[in-house]
Structures are given as structure tokens and as C-alpha cells.
Design a protein that fits this description.
Keywords: Membrane, Transmembrane, Transmembrane helix. The chain is α+β, with helices and mostly antiparallel strands and about 250 residues long. The protein is elongated, with a radius of gyration of 24 Å. The chain has helices at about 10-25, 60-70, 100-115, 120-155, 190-205, 215-235, 245-250, and strands at about 35-40, 45-50, 55-60, 175-180, 180-185.
Length: about 250
């Protein structure tokens, strides 16, 4: 079987999966999720905590843990890895948190494996499987995180100093208030890097049938956007002869 040459990686369908693979691994070095908290106990300070794809926290997690203690909400226990914060005995178990890097490395290796496919047919099939599999993996991760947030918010310590707090579900993105604590959740740089990587895989999948180069891609996208805008404004399609670039665009 013929192996792809370096020139072949100039094509979108081979080059972008490699870039996506690098982004998936690099994302592990950055926070995936950020939480900002305001409370009357800290009138002049906004507390910030960053969470990674593995059991690691940075920021004001000690102060945040003290605030959460008032309502009986505790950081989860990753079980498999000793975290960098004391785990409260009523904290929920989240063993899968330790497996986060496995998912990122797995989709990264698969991206490289697909990019070096020896034939065009195997490359096209691989791009399809890779994209569907990656979306499925991260879909499961997001669903699991949201479930764990629901679980933590609905297993509050009944002996907490602030009594009568109803169960709640912290959102992955958004503002919420519990008692006198207002929190804002946002994605971190690592999550955005993963999103960009998935988008690159989607672009590679879209151009799987054509040897479009990365250099040609901006022009292809521009022409496609212009055609969509023309259709939206009711402009007529050109009736003159088309160029090779026009006929080659999907």
C-alpha cells in the first residue's frame, strides 16, 4: 500500500485531522471549565476556580469550598487520583474524571491514524467514523458532567449551616444563584480548543471527496458564503461560463 506523502497533508482532508489531533492533546494543559462566584462573605472579591479534564483545580478553590460548605455542596471525589484539595466524606464519587485524558488522547490518536490512511477510500471512511465517534465521545462526556452536577446539587448535606436550600443543578454555561451565592459558569480555553478541533474534523469530512488544499480553503469558503448571501437576497445565479474553481466547489 502506498503511504501518503508530505504533499498529501496539504489537503484539507488529511491536514486538518492532524491539526485537530494536536489541539485535542494541547487542550489538556488548559482549564476546561471556569466558575466565578460572588457572595456576601467576600464583598470586594470575585472568586474564580478552573477545572481541568483530569482531577485538578486551580484558583480560589479553598475559599470556594468554604462557601459551598454553608449549603452542603461539596467538590466531587475523583477516587482514582488524589486531588489537590481535601475531599469531604459526603462528596459524590466521580471516578470517570480521572479518565478524561484517555478520551482526549484516544480521539487525537484516531485523528492521526485516519490522516495517514493509505488510500482515498479508507481516508473517506475513516473521516466519517472519526467525526461520528468524536462527537459521540464528547457528547457522552458533556452528558456525564451535567449528570454529576445534578447529582451533587441534589445530595446536599442536611446538616449544612444554611438549612432549607432546595436541590439545584449548576449549568455548564450560565448564571445561577443559591442562597446568597451567585455563580457564573463558563467554558475554559481547553473546551474551546476541543470545539475548534471538532470543527476542523467536520471541515475535513465535508471535503473528503476532493483534494482541496488548505491554501484553497479560504477561497472555497468565501465563494460559498457569497452564494448563500446571493440566494438570501434573491440575486440570480450567473449564467456565463464557469471556471474550474467554481465547478470544483462542492
Amino acid at each position: 500500500m502506498q503511504r501518503p506523502t508530505l504533499d498529501d497533508f496539504r489537503e484539507v482532508r488529511r491536514g486538518l485531522p492532524v491539526v485537530a489531533a494536536v489541539l485535542f492533546v494541547a487542550a489538556l494543559a488548559f482549564p476546561m471549565w471556569r466558575i466565578s462566584v460572588q457572595a456576601v462573605q467576600y464583598p470586594n472579591t470575585v472568586l474564580h476556580v478552573q477545572l481541568y479534564a483530569y482531577p485538578h483545580l486551580t484558583g480560589d478553590f479553598t475559599e470556594m469550598a468554604r462557601l459551598n460548605h454553608y449549603i452542603g455542596f461539596y467538590y466531587p471525589d475523583p477516587v482514582f487520583v488524589e486531588p489537590n484539595f481535601p475531599v469531604q466524606e459526603r462528596a459524590i464519587d466521580v471516578p470517570e474524571w480521572s479518565l478524561g485524558p484517555v478520551a482526549f488522547v484516544a480521539v487525537s490518536l484516531l485523528s492521526v491514524f485516519v490522516a495517514v490512511a493509505p488510500t482515498t477510500e479508507k481516508l473517506k471512511r475513516g473521516l466519517t467514523y472519526q467525526f461520528v465517534g468524536t462527537v459521540a465521545v464528547f457528547g457522552v462526556l458533556v452528558a456525564d458532567i451535567q449528570y454529576r452536577l445534578w447529582q451533587a446539587g441534589h445530595t446536599l448535606d442536611p446538616d449544612a449551616p444554611v438549612m432549607g436550600v432546595s436541590g439545584f443543578t449548576p449549568p455548564l454555561w450560565g448564571r445561577y444563584s443559591v442562597a446568597n451565592i451567585t455563580s457564573v459558569s463558563r467554558f475554559g480555553p481547553g473546551a474551546y480548543m476541543a470545539m475548534v478541533a471538532v470543527f476542523l474534523l467536520a471541515v475535513a469530512l465535508f471535503y473528503r471527496d476532493e483534494p482541496v488544499t488548505v491554501r484553497e480553503l479560504p477561497g472555497r469558503i468565501r465563494r460559498r458564503v457569497e452564494r448563500l448571501l446571493d440566494r438570501g437576497t434573491g440575486a440570480e445565479e450567473p449564467t456565463g461560463p464557469t471556471t474550474d474553481a467554481d465547478t470544483g466547489d462542492r
